[in-house]
Amino acid sequence: MASDDPNRHTIINLVDIPGSGSPPISPIPSSLSSPIAVSTGHVTPNAKRLKAPIKQRSTVTKRQKTTTATENATLTGSNHKDLAIVQAAEQGVSVLDSLSIKYESPWRSLRSDYELNLGGFVIIASDRGSERDSFIVKRFSGPDMASKLRMLQRIRHANFISVLQRFSFEDSYYAVFDHISVSLARIVTSPPYLRICELAAILFQILEAVSYLEKQNLEHGSLNCSNILLSPRGVIKITHQETCRDITSSQPRLTDVKAIGYIAMELMQKYQNDDGAIGLEDFSRYPSDCDAVDFLAATTSATSAEELIRHRLLRNNVQKEQLKWLVGIATTAHIGFRYDEEKWEA
């Protein structure tokens, strides 16, 4: 993104995006570079069995090839000093409409620090002036840029990652998001197996988000453990919402529903089945007659998230605060930990 003139500006007025309802004033340049897509590749745990503590069946996970940060051009950074913006993001309130676009290179205020795989490699960057916080920045360009920006504006829900700031520079648009580093893929590869109450707390939040999309006649289309994040407060944050697509009210919502089945299966047994089927191979942790297994079976026949959210697994008091410790162990397990497998109970 280097440029000889850091002050070179490109104006993108979101109000003027086609279909926004207002006559164009300053149109987006038509001759944009080829699209740079944000990878939604699923990094699935694989090779069944990673060595775990006492009596825990080892699980090694299968990993698919993922793209690099250069390939998907997803970047990160920050310049957010307004506490109200941060609070709004924590509450899941989109502040897109209230934020002004900065017509400058985001890299004047950001510094790239390292790459992280969040459904595709991204660069984590810090504020050059204050290195306390990190944020995710996604770059959009090409002919589909306008549709992605419209989708970012359209989706407003507490379980989707919120936009905090916007930049426009050199025929590209940058959306800045809060940085959450732990994905469900990290939870899957962490040693502890989920208790049923923790599984329910995760699935309930995902279903709330997918149910919201259904009511908007939208479909995510690429949900997986890698692009669903878990905040330190136990809040699920789904990413890649800019790739959501419109569906008619008469179309079945099977893609996202089936994805939830695979996500639940990975969270329960820490790998996907070789034959691609949804179901457990080992019932030692989750008995065949328990609510979690019944929910998993229901994902193979359900036609909507609204149907699944009424399942008895989710009828109890679902508390996201129960998930906080999972974030802690997911971020520290690589430096050594102690976990008493004998105390595990569903």
UniProtKB/TrEMBL annotation:
Residues 17-28 have a biased composition (Low complexity). Signal peptide: none annotated. Residues 1-28 are annotated as: Disordered. One of its GO terms (molecular function) is ATP binding. Residues 110-346 form the Protein kinase domain. Gene3D superfamilies: Transferase(Phosphotransferase) domain 1. InterPro entries: Kinase-like_dom_sf (IPR011009), Prot_kinase_dom (IPR000719). PANTHER family: PROTEIN KINASE DOMAIN-CONTAINING PROTEIN (PTHR24362:SF309), SERINE/THREONINE-PROTEIN KINASE NEK (PTHR24362). This is Protein kinase domain-containing protein.
